[in-house]
Amino acid sequence: MFRGFYTLTSDMLTQQRRLNVISNNMANVSTPGFKKDTLVTTTFDERLAIRTGSVDKSSKTQLGGVAMMRVADEKVTEYEQGNFDVTGRPLDVAIAGEGFFEVQTPTSGIVYTRNGSFTLDEEGYLYLQHIGRVLGDDGEPILLRTDKVSVETDGSVVYEETGGRLGKLSVVNFVDYSQLEKTGEGMFTNQNGANAVSVDLPDVRWKMLERSNASAMDEIVAMITSQRALQSAGEVLRMYDQLMQKAANDIGRI
Length: 254
Known about the structure:
28% of the residues lie in helices and 29% in strands. The chain has helices at 2-27, 44-51, 216-253, and strands spanning 37-43, 70-77, 84-86, 93-96, 100-104, 110-113, 118-120, 126-128, 132-134, 149-151, 156-159, 165-168, 171-174, 180-184, 187-190, 196-198, 203-206, 208-210. β7 (118-120) and β8 form a beta hairpin.
């Protein structure tokens, strides 16, 4: 009976965390370049073995019935590319294949994103709204002062009237994606400076934006499934409570 309480409670907590992840995915379905998250679960004994520092898991033994209890393990980001939308805007760009744009924020240093919905700030620098200035391959913000530009496939930004090169977008990739930490709005920070490598021949698409790889329909289905699992666990938990009350009262009378 007590094992049932523990199992149901752990499942309810896990489903609540899964709903939080799904809600964030749904909120960013329209965010260009957003990468969705998935909550991975594991059994209680596996999580306990990891936390106790066991190195060799080849001969692990089951810890009684607690193996049935599932707990949230980690949140995994799916980096698969989203589809492209043709916008026609001269400062919209997307990356085909691997790579991220570099953006200098006022307070958090450099962040990385697939969101290429750029504008110009008040001083004429290429700018990602609410985030910061877009960096070029020289590590400095790109100064344009005009949107009469074209962007070549290698990321070079060219002034249309003269054909002069105004800068080149910095596109970087990462050796180990597990070193990336999502900070919101499709932005990532890199926890290891040596992890970032420049992409010498990026495939930049002009006047396009990459869609979020989160599907509204898939997230709705996942939300309904998780909500039903949460409700079912709650109903069974109430039944357990009623049974224990009845058993305690009847035994007390005897």
